[in-house]
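TA notes. Do not distribute before section.
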Amino acid sequence: MLLEVIATNLTDVIEAEQYGADRIELSPAMAEIGLTPSYGLLKKAVEAVHLPINVMVRPHSQSFVYNKYDLDTMKADIDLITKMGANGIVIGALTAEKTIDEEVLKQLLNVADDLEVTFHRAFDFARDQEEALACLAQYKQITTVLTAGGNYKAPEAISQLQQLIDLAADTHVNMMVGHGLKPATFADVYEQVKPHAFHFGSGARRNDSFAYKLDRSKIQHIKNILQK
C-alpha cells in the first residue's frame, strides 16, 4: 500500500524520500489548502529525488470554482509540469452547484498528456460523493481520488470511506484516504479501511503542524503499520 506525503518545500522533498515516503505531493501554502509551486521549487524538486512527484495545480485559494483566466493559468502550469518531468498532477474543479466541473476538467486533461492525475479533496466538497465518483470514473486519465469521505477528518468518516472504496472497486479509479490522519491512531483507521493509498500532511510532521518539518519517526511508524 502506497504512502503519499505532502512536501511544501525542497527540504520536505528530500526528507520525504529519506524517511520512507513512496510518493510526494508537492503542494506549498498548505494554510490555504495548497497552491501551485513555483518554477524554482518544481525544477529543484524533480531534480533532487527519485520518488514520483505529483504536483498541485491550484491557482488560488478562493474556492474550487475556476473561470477562464484561472483555466488558462492552470493549463500553462500543467504544460510546465510536463516539461519539468514530474510524475503527475493534482487537480480538482467544481461548479457553483458543487458538482464536478467537467468542462474545466476536460480542458485540463487535454493538456495533461501522460501525466498521472489525482483529483484532490475538492471531491469532498461536492454535493454528493457517489455522484462525483461516478463522474470521475468516466475519465481514464484520472487514476486517483483523494478523499476523507466528505467534509470531515478521515477517522470520523470510516463508513463513508469504505462505501466509496467499494464503489471504486468496480472502476479503474484508486481511492486515496487523507486529511486528519495521525500516526497515534492510524493503526485503527488502517484496520477498518484498505484503500489503494494513504495521504499524510500535518500528521507526518513535528507537532502535527505544517509550521514544522517532517518527522522521521512518524513516517517510519506509518510505514511499519502499512507493511504488516
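Switch to the second chain here.
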Amino acid sequence: MNIALFDFDGTITECDTFTPFIKAAIPRSRMLIGRLLLMPSILAYRTGILSASSIRQQIVYIGLKGFSKTCLETLGKNHANEFLSSVIRANALERIQWHLDSGDRVIVVSASLDVYLRPWCDNIGIELICSQLDNKGDILTGKYHEGDCTGAEKVRRVESLVDLKAYKKIFAYGDTKEDEALLKIADEKYFQWEKI
C-alpha cells in the first residue's frame, strides 16, 4: 500500500480558501476594526517581511477570539458545501480517486482550518491533518490548538500519526514554499502538479 499526502489550498483547489472563509465568518464591524489593527501586518506580509503563517494567526486572533465554536462549525459546513465545491480542481479529484482506487491511504495536510476541511474530507472519504482552533467550552480563544500546520509542522504531524516506513511509496502534492518539507519526505513529488 502507498500513501498520498495532499496540500489543500492551491493544490486541491484553484485558490486560497482561508481568506474567503474568514471574510464570510467574521461580522462586518469586527472586520473593519480588524483591518485597521492588522494594516501594518498586512503590509509586512505583502512585502515579504511577515510569513503567511504569522498573518493567518493574527487574523484568527483578532477575528475569531470569543466566537462560538458551534456557530463557526456551522459556517464551516456551509463553506465546504457552497464555496469549496466551486474551486476544487478536477485533476486533483481525479488524482485523489486514482489513489483511492489503487488502495492507497490519502491524507490532506493543510494549514487551513478543520471547521471547513473536515466536512469536505469526510464527504469524499479521506483523512485530514490541519490547523485547528483552540477553544474553552464553546468559545474560541483566538489561538491555534497545537499551532499552525505549515512547513516543517506538516511533516511533524504526519510522522506523529503515520509510520511512513509501513508504506511502499510516499506521494506528496504541494504548490508553495510552505509545502517544501512535505515534498522532501516523498518518493514521488508534485509541485504545482508538475512531477519534480
